[in-house]
Write a structure and sequence with these properties.
alpha/beta; Beta-Lactamase; Rossmann fold; 3 domains; 9-stranded mixed beta sheet; 15 strands; 19% strand; disordered N terminus
Amino acid sequence: MASGKRIESVFCINHPRAAELEQLFRDIVRSVAQDEGAYNKLNKEKNNNKYDRLLLNFIQEKFNSLTDGMDLKLHGEEKKRFFEDVLDDIKGLGPVEQLLRDPEVTEIMVNGPNCIFVEKGGKNCLTPLRFIDREHLLSSIQEIVGPVNRRIDISSPMVDARLPNGSRVNAVINPVALDGPYLTIRKFPENRHSLEKLIQFGSITAEIAEFFRIAVQARLNIMISGGTGTGKTTMLNVLSEFISPESRIVIVEDTAELTIHKGRKNVCRLEVRPANLEGKGEISIRQLVRNTLRMRPDRIVVGEVRGEEAFDLVQAMNTGHDGSLTTLHANSCRDALHRLEAMVIMAGTNLTQESIRDLITSAINLVVHLARFRDGSRKIVEVTAVEPAGADGKIKAVPLWTYSPDSVSVKDNITGEYLFHGIPEQTRERIEAQGYPLPEMLSTQNLK
């Protein structure tokens, strides 16, 4: 089915026959569930190629039966799109299903039943699509969270989940969502971005990419920071490509979305479990991080550190699990280190601030910061080496590369250059001690 918005649809805003089409839509969807004979027949064919055809025939039969005698004149294309909308609702997530199929859409943002935005090319735009009402939207949310053993209700009105294709989902309902329900779907490309692709996009230079390859192979611990939608998960996936195939990787995530496991055998994936209806059975990300140490990992990858688990991760990095990777939300490399320090304090370790900073500087070797620009582009804007605290007690964040945007950049095309500040001696020694000498091109400062 072709991608892109459809303008003559039961889910489009201001359709001239919207009320009649909505009621017809409800009646057809309800009839599929209530017609036991048809339901059983369809269910038998659910996993083969006949299912779509049989379901479409059933929808057409019901449409003809229900519209007999009605003055509802739809031309061929309108009728086809209406059938597609019903199919999308029965098989998928209603009006957002076509957006999930559109390869240009990277994010879907539903602000209540009548307002659906998408992100394309790094920019947000309003679509003409909508859900019939709040109950219709809530039904689609329940279709998402049920299969992954998550729940959303009045007592638990927020949920993180994932779709079968790996897309990340967040949903919020009343009483928290005042005009909701709200649904946000972060799509991930079917084909993973490679480092070469990021170079083509201008998100990174060949010199920085080569340094990352060496840093990962030399088992430096790397933390990736940035705001929402800056590409942290993509960068984490890309860096994982340089981990040797024989390495045993244990991945810990709040909601599974990393694709490090693709093509690898020695990978274990762990995902948190929320509490059940009785408030029991929760397995936190901190518990999972602790458990990784019993699984004989060569590398530990935590999708995102958000709280107390930061202490357990830096402990692991300091106890022979070099080459670990993680991400966190922050505004700069230095801010990322401050946030990590605050998270370790949250764990209630009774360590002094000096001891915590020593723990962090021994654990984290590199911080990579990404940003999203007004033209929709995402770039690495800072690569920093972490060194022990100085006389002032503060952790040293030594810049390796910084991105400098041109002051004359036009609105829709940000340009700039990367300034190379050199590789600190301690970082160079750490890398070369692992048998990975740095190439000559990484020895010259002010490299553009």
